[in-house]
């Protein structure tokens, strides 16, 4: 290990002195046994259910490397369930020693003082410059980023082959031509389930990652500084969403009734469409369907251009500031930061490393996306600034209204501007 073990020794000694009082506040089931073995309570929405993500394997490796630290891992269903459980636990001092967060949760819980400052950890200085802002608040690093994960276009290569298509399209004109070939061959060209409003909003962002950001890589800062606006800059991405229906490839009224998190993945895995849009975290599940699949950036650019991939600053580890096993908790986070360990998680997630010089696993399914990342053709979704959770929800709702014909393009862009500008 890179550390001397001093922290574990300190934690062990302190814990042994209070072996009969196991984590009265902070850490839930964490504590120490009579022989000085420390138990860390770790809470996460990855590592169980349909997304094991090699977390159990990494935890086992950690315990082997740290025989005096045992992991009590708690998997909690994602989304609202996770927040509803941890919020009162944090308030009551009973949350885990190490908790999984994303940028939105890091900001909220960090502002409430629930997260320890990790700025001095050895891995903090190795976070890639464009990933660092997503793990920081007021200049303090409050979480260790675990991944930069792509969101893009899935392709069932068997269905594409039936229509005479040999590769995933890289630009908008080719994409439209391929959709036309698929439809003519009697194949459902593309599925974009959007019941919660996530898919429409996300495709809008993915298209903009090429259409908007290849013209102005600093669009986010320009927008925040009042020097850029959605109208007219984002007219192109909105037009692409509408064109899919106008040309008969997508029935938005039907898609808005299909859940993107449950039925959507099932439908694509069942071979019901040639293309589909989702995050790279679904690659492992889709592979089980048995057909060759490709995951690539949304092909939004002009003819002959290469697309930008869109990345999301995903899961991160944070240390509970109330934990009585804080030193051992930092050891755990440090272990995850090391390339040989984090690579196991990245491999399962089909994600990119958030560290400078970090190891990004490669697979045949994600070659197109990983190539874009390595070429520097990517943009990270600004979930740390104007596209936080509240804005994302609002934008999704506004785009749904537009796709149903209840709002004009001009009004939609105006409404998105308002949502993104809200504090």
Number of strands: 14
Low-confidence stretches: 1-26
Estimate the mean pLDDT confidence. 92
Quickly count the helices: 18
Radius of gyration based on Cα positions: 23 Å
Give the helix/strand class: alpha/beta
Question: Largest sheet at a glance?
Answer: 6 strands, mixed
Tell me what portion of residues adopts beta-strand conformation: 5-15%
Shape: globular
Distance between the termini: 43 Å
Percentage of residues in helical conformation: 40-55%
Helices and strands in order:
Layout: H1 6-17, E1 31-32, E2 38-44, H2 55-65, E3 69-75, H3 80-91, E4 98-101, H4 103-111, E5 136-137, E6 140-141, E7 144-145, E8 148-156, H5 157-162, H6 172-184, E9 190-191, H7 198-211, H8 219-224, H9 230-233, H10 235-246, H11 252-255, H12 263-269, E10 275-279, H13 283-287, E11 293-296, E12 309-313, E13 316-319, H14 326-337, H15 339-349, H16 367-374, E14 378-380, H17 389-403, H18 409-421
Short description:
With 423 residues, the chain is α/β, with parallel strands linked by helices. The protein is built from 18 helices and 14 strands. 41% of the residues lie in helices and 14% in strands.
Looking at this protein, list some descriptive labels.
six-stranded mixed sheet, single chain, 18 helices, 14 strands, alpha/beta, disordered N terminus
């Amino acid at each position: 290990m890179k550390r001397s073990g001093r922290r574990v020794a300190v934690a062990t000694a302190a814990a042994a002195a209070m072996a009969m009082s196991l984590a009265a506040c902070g850490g839930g089931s964490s504590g120490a046994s009579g022989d000085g073995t420390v138990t860390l309570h770790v809470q996460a929405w990855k590592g169980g259910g349909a997304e094991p993500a090699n977390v159990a394997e990494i935890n086992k490796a950690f315990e082997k490397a740290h025989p005096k630290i045992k992991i009590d891992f708690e998997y909690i269903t994602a989304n609202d369930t996770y927040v509803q459980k941890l919020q009162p636990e944090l308030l009551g001092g009973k949350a885990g020693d190490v908790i999984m967060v994303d940028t939105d949760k890091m900001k909220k819980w960090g502002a409430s003082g629930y997260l320890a400052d990790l700025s001095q950890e050895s891995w903090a200085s190795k976070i890639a410059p464009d990933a660092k802002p997503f793990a920081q608040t007021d200049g303090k690093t409050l979480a260790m980023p675990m991944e930069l994960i792509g969101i893009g276009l899935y392709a069932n290569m068997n269905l594409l082959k039936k229509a005479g298509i040999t590769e995933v399209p890289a630009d908008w004109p080719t994409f439209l031509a391929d959709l036309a070939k698929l439809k003519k061959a009697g194949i459902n060209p593309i599925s974009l389930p959007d019941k919660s409003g996530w898919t429409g909003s996300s495709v809008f962002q993915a298209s903009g990652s090429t259409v908007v950001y290849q013209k102005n890589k600093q669009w986010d800062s320009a927008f925040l500084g009042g020097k850029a606006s959605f109208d007219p800059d984002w007219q192109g991405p909105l037009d692409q969403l509408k064109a899919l229906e106008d040309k008969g490839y997508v029935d938005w009224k039907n898609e808005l009734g299909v859940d993107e998190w449950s039925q959507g993945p099932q439908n694509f895995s069942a071979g019901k469409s040639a293309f589909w849009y989702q995050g790279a975290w679904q690659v492992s599940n889709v592979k089980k369907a048995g057909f060759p699949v490709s995951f690539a950036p949304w092909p939004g650019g002009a003819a002959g251009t290469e697309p930008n991939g869109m990345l999301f600053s995903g899961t991160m580890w944070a240390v509970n500031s109330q934990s009585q096993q804080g030193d051992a908790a930092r050891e755990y986070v440090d272990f995850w930061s090391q390339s040989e360990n984090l690579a196991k998680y990245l491999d399962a997630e089909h994600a990119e490393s958030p560290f400078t010089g970090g190891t990004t696993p490669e697979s045949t399914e994600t070659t197109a996306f990983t190539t874009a990342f390595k070429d520097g053709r990517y943009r990270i979704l600004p979930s740390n600034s104007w596209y936080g959770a509240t804005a994302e929800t609002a934008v999704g709702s506004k785009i749904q209204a537009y796709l149903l014909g209840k709002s004009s393009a001009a009004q939609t862009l105006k409404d998105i501007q308002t949502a993104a500008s809200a504090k």
